[in-house]
Specification:
- The protein is of the alpha/beta class and 274 residues long.
- The chain is built from eleven helices and ten strands.
- The chain has two domains: 191 residues, Rossmann fold, CATH 3.40.50.1820; 63 residues, no CATH class.
- Helix content is 33%, strand content 18%.
- Helix 1 crosses helix 11, helix 2 packs across helix 3 and helix 5 packs antiparallel against helix 6.
Length: 274
């Protein structure tokens, strides 16, 4: 298998490249509305991670293999420097990229609701529900939603997952992510990224106020690996702050990317909607 799979990208705007990596079960479309605002200042490049969206598979889904695949893709496109944004799984891949001694120049880094540490398994019920869903028997998207409702209580999670459900040319429903590969390699993506150097790029960690993915206990490990971390919290949001309060999220990104950063405390909360 080709060690560097095809990586699908969506590009808009002009200026310094701003690369965005989505989270587990997602794709480049997750940040489409955010890109509409950021493309006023940057060339926004939204990527599908390996085994997600329209991108190809990897023999083994590890942070190292995914980071190298993205770095290879960007090198092929002639990109030798950029800003980098990563959410959840994409945040871990972004941290792995920034810690690669052979990485491109990352001017500024934004990590959304994830820390550089091991996370205990907590997606088993989702994997089980998706594997149990009889794609061949689904009549329409509403039917799929009704079936998932029996095992996934959170309507937001169901809606997020169903964004990746589509009909192929034969009319059969399929997932845009490689469910088998993600389930197989899930233990690898629970781990922390590996760092061969301390990250020099100014880095902003954005926490969802109601999320437990990122908290005060993560500040010391973050400062161990990052020279210039900042911390912001978007109140009233969960694990997808960019989707729940896009205006606030976009403002924080623009402020950080276009001005000199200042050190903030983990607990700082931003509640403004404009």
């Amino acid at each position: 298998m080709n060690p560097y799979p095809y990586i699908h990208q969506e590009v808009s705007g002009q200026g310094l490249p701003l690369v965005i990596l989505h989270g587990l079960f997602g794709d480049a479309d997750n940040f489409r509305s955010i890109a509409l605002h950021l493309e006023r200042h940057f060339q926004v490049i939204r990527l599908d991670l390996p085994a997600h969206g329209h991108s190809g598979p990897l023999e083994k889904l590890t942070f190292d293999s995914m980071a190298k695949a993205v770095l290879h893709h960007l090198a092929e496109k002639g990109i030798d420097q950029c800003h980098l944004v990563g959410h959840s799984l994409g945040g871990k891949v972004a941290m792995q990229m920034a810690g690669d001694p052979d990485a491109l120049t990352i001017n500024k880094l934004i990590i959304v609701d994830i820390a550089p540490r091991f996370y205990p398994p907590h997606h088993e019920s989702i994997f089980e529900a998706l594997k149990a869903l009889p794609l061949h028997a689904i009549q329409n998207r509403g039917d799929a939603e009704k079936r998932l409702r029996q095992s996934i209580n959170d309507a937001g999670v169901r809606g997020f997952l169903l964004k990746s459900l589509y009909r192929d040319l034969e009319g059969e429903y399929r997932w845009r992510f490689d469910l088998d590969a993600l389930a197989r390699d899930y233990p690898a993506i629970q781990q922390s990224p590996t760092f061969t150097k301390k990250i020099a790029a100014p880095t902003l960690f954005i926490k969802g106020g109601n999320s437990n993915y990122l908290g005060p206990q993560d500040e010391l490990p973050i400062r161990t690996h990052f020279r210039h971390p900042q911390f912001k919290e978007i109140g009233g949001t969960g694990h997808w702050p960019h989707a729940e309060k896009p205006a606030v999220f976009t403002r924080l990104c623009n402020e950080f990317l276009t001005s000199e950063p200042s050190v903030q405390a983990v607990g700082e909360t931003t509640n403004q909607d404009t």
